[in-house]
Amino acid sequence: MTAPSPELEQQFDATVARKDRIEPRDWMPEAYRKTLVRQIAQHAHSEIIGMQPEGNWIGRAPSLRRKAILLAKVQDEAGHGLYLYSACETLGVTRDELTRMLIEGRQKYSSIFNYPTLSYADVGTIGWLVDGAAICNQVPLCRTSFGPYGRAMIRICKEESFHQRQGFELLMTMMRGTDEQRAMVQESVDRFWWPALMMFGPPDADSPNTEQSMAWGIKTHTNDALRQKFVDMSVPQATALGVTLPDPELRWNEERGHHDFGQPDWAEFMRVVKGGGPCNAQRVAHRKRAWEDGAWVREAALAFAEREAAAQQEVSA
Ligand SMILES: [Fe+2]
Ligand SMILES: [Fe+2]
């Protein structure tokens, strides 16, 4: 590869410094492109794999209303995956390649989706805490430096706030129910609280890519800053619900104007990220099966498109 002209590099740096958008047609450093492909793909995979734990409850939702809400939510996640794969494709990779990298374990997705959904309350807890954490992570990404990614995030964030509210509303309904329902909510929150905190990634000191990503305007906040924001946001919501968060170190720090809180089990996080979580193998196997089962649809769509194009050519000839 030939070295880029100094003007191109200056233009890129100036665009990032102005907090303007880099577009697919613009020159960009190869490392910037690679970082974005990795991040957007990981994000897209998370949306698609994230359909599984909740999809698990669609057939067992307790009422038609709950089923309609859950179906709509899971379908939204499929849409998020599609916007993000499209954004990623503008960087010169195909969706086929990205899917292959996922099912071959060469690209990751969020560790949270490797935990099982054991009770119906988990649908509420995922909406409240997991989509809540996703919102904290994603709102700043609406202003990320790469245009297609930022624009996809704007629409995604609007839908995520519906997800968070439907989860909170579900939990609130259960908390107003029987003792058994309240216990179910508490048990679910106890299981999901720590994995939700892990969604922001390792502590800043162990996050080697953060500095470069911030310099490029891809990330605008550090992992620890976002985690703090999420804890501060969740504590009053937990009080409103009447659930306790399973952290004995959690308390308001007057001086800092933030909550102090304990650290998740980072060894567990690393284990889950590396494929050793309770559901990693199941999630990827399920995605692989869906990909293989859908091969005929992709082949048929391609054959149809080719035939249409040939017919068009005949007409214009
Ligand atoms: Fe989503
Ligand atoms: Fe969501």
From TrEMBL:
PANTHER family: 1,2-PHENYLACETYL-COA EPOXIDASE, SUBUNIT A, PHENYLACETIC ACID DEGRADATION PROTEIN PAA
Gene3D superfamilies documented for this protein: 1.20.1260.10
Segments crossing the lipid bilayer: none
GO CC terms of this entry: cytosol
GO molecular function, a single term: phenylacetyl-CoA 1,2-epoxidase activity
Protein name: 1,2-phenylacetyl-CoA epoxidase subunit A
EC code: 1.14.13.149
One GO-annotated biological process of the protein: phenylacetate catabolic process
Keywords assigned by UniProt, alphabetized: Oxidoreductase
Organism: Nocardioides acrostichi
Gene: paaA
